[in-house]
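Usage

Read records sequentially. Each one opens with the input sequence:
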Amino acid sequence: MEKRIITEKLTTIFRDVFKDKSMVLNDDLSSNSVEKWNSLTHMVLLNSVENEFGIKFKLKDLMKIKTVGDLISIIYSYKNEENN
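and closes with the structure output:
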């Protein structure tokens, strides 16, 4: 799966979770950048991502997610593992 497709799907998820239809994702976007991004919305976000991409995050990978770019890279690696 291409990173562009991952980003498009994530944009839809972020807009839904944060109730902001104008939200634009970039690799540096983090919880510090989004006012409504708290521990509860973080869990909802991760659950939505797992459901959309048909993956289950490992704890070690969850600990690496600091930015949207990190999230994209982890999803990319999961999806490419499936294809190998």
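Summary fields computed downstream for this record:
- Helices lie at 3-17, 39-53, 59-62, 68-82.
- The radius of gyration is 12 Å.
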